[in-house]
């Protein structure tokens, strides 16, 4: 896919620039008022290196639902990562980048009939099941599908538990489903589990893999030829977290129960790959100071209203049980004041941080939120008319050299040069194209040498309103 809109390109930074300098350049430009993201694709590449080092036997299938940003999918595809899709639209999105259907697992145990038909039509033939009705449905709609039986094995602590909705009991239900699949003439090719998103109970992986080994042997005795073990998701991805302990337990269990090349081991990481790659910048548009009783005029609490909230990026507070910490872009001074941070909508539910100590901040100042790549943008809405933040994409030169010829990425995806000038070229403060004729009258992009010019020459996209006298 050839990217033709300059702003959708990956901006290659020089050695003196990084995510924070980009944020500061955009935030302090005087042109930016809306919230925005900076996506560092180098962070994703680094995560993939960690995965391959820590889990060399486990092939990652990225969970598209976690963050379906187009550049994210293209970068992951260029790195050779496969995909876990949950719907026909996610399947179509991945296929649109030239990814082969064999690189997709349809990992939704409860699938609408039309989605199963679509998977059959486009050749996505590996899919998960955890109940009798789904087996009968697949028998009718896609009898040649490669079926992965999903069992339930819940972590004692997880950010988002999933077992209450998906997964069959490995001891009682799974054997019955194996017999039903055999009687229906279906093809069970393996077993999967999902311990819960954001797992904080590493030993659960050992228990789940042990259950799968028992079921592998049972399926083989019935006449199936299982070869696929899917370890699901649950791998942390925030800054300062590590998959080392989980990897140690998984590797130990694989050596003990699946010490054979005949079994293909995969997993479905989502937040691991993208959580720390996205940093959100928000600005304070309103402020309310709560003062003491009539005998004291001192401020006891500050309420800050920013331009993104729980109906936008911070839906992760409701749906993903995340905890976020605002980082003032400008260093504060003076005493710390109890504060709360609120989103821009008229709903009282739109509260981001309830109680935090902050230096006194003024209107127009910026708050930064790290680790905002997982389960944020895909669920965001423009409720109350507030826009979903724009994503600016950056990479350093080493990442550019690594990916510029790795399909589906090409050199057309990259533009050389730093901020603020080229990241704002053709954008209004809301992150939208301000040229109404661009769709019907495409413009030639400026060459890189012009884009890297950081002089104070006003952009031709910025107009000054002048009232003309009437004749």
UniProtKB/TrEMBL annotation:
Free-text function comment from the UniProt entry: Catalyzes the first and rate-limiting step of polyamine biosynthesis that converts ornithine into putrescine, which is the precursor for the polyamines, spermidine and spermine. Polyamines are essential for cell proliferation and are implicated in cellular processes, ranging from DNA replication to apoptosis.
Gene: 105617264
Lineage: Eukaryota, Metazoa, Ecdysozoa, Arthropoda, Hexapoda
Domain of life of the organism encoding this protein: Eukaryota
Subunit structure: Homodimer. Only the dimer is catalytically active, as the active sites are constructed of residues from both monomers.
SUPFAM superfamilies named among the record's database cross-references: Alanine racemase C-terminal domain-like, PLP-binding barrel
Family: Belongs to the Orn/Lys/Arg decarboxylase class-II family.
Protein name per its UniProtKB record: ornithine decarboxylase
GO molecular function terms listed in the Swiss-Prot or TrEMBL record: ornithine decarboxylase activity
């Amino acid at each position: 896919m050839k990217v033709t809109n300059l702003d959708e390109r990956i901006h290659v930074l020089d050695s003196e620039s990084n995510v924070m300098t980009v944020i500061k350049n955009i935030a302090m430009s005087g042109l930016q008022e809306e919230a925005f993201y900076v996506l560092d694709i180098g962070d994703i590449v680094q995560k993939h290196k960690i995965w391959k080092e820590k889990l060399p036997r486990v092939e990652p299938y990225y969970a598209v639902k976690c963050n379906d940003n187009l550049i994210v999918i293209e970068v992951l595809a260029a790195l050779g990562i496969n995909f876990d899709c949950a719907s026909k639209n996610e399947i179509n999105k991945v296929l649109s980048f030239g990814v082969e259907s064999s690189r997709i697992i349809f990992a939704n145990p409860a699938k609408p009939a039309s989605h199963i038909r679509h998977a059959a039509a486009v050749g996505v033939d590996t899919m998960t099941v955890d109940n009798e009705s789904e087996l009968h449905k697949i028998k009718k709609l896609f009898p040649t599908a490669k079926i992965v039986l999903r069992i339930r094995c819940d972590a004692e602590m997880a950010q988002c538990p999933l077992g209450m909705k998906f997964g069959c009991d490995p001891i009682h239900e799974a054997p019955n489903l194996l017999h039903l699949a055999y009687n229906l003439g279906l093809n069970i090719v393996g077993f999967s589990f999902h311990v819960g998103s954001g797992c904080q109970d590493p030993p659960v992986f050992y228990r789940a893999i042990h259950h799968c080994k028992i079921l592998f042997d049972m399926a083989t005795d019935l006449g199936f030829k299982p070869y696929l073990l899917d370890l699901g998701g649950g791998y942390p991805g925030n800054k300062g977290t590590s998959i080392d302990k989980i990897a140690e337990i998984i590797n130990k269990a694989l050596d003990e129960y699946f010490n054979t090349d005949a079994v293909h081991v995969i997993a479905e990481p989502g937040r691991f790959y993208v959580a720390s790659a996205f940093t959100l910048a928000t600005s304070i548009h309103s402020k309310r100071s709560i003062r003491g009783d009539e005998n004291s005029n001192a401020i006891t609490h500050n309420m800050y209203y920013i331009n993104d909230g729980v109906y936008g990026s911070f839906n992760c507070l409701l749906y993903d049980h995340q905890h976020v910490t605002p980082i003032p872009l400008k260093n504060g001074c003076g005493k710390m004041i109890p504060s709360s941070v609120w989103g821009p909508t008229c709903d009282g539910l739109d509260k981001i941080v309830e109680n935090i100590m902050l230096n006194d901040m003024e209107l127009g100042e910026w708050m930064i939120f790290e680790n905002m790549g997982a389960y944020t943008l895909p669920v965001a809405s423009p409720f109350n008319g507030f826009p979903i933040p724009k994503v600016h994409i950056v990479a350093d030169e080493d990442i550019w050299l690594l990916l510029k010829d790795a399909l589906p990425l090409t050199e057309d995806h990259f533009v050389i040069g730093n901020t603020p000038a080229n990241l704002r070229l053709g954008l209004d403060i809301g992150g939208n194209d301000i040229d109404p004729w661009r769709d019907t009258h495409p413009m030639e992009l400026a060459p890189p040498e012009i884009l890297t010019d950081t002089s104070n020459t006003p952009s031709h996209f910025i107009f000054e309103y002048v009232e003309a006298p009437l004749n």
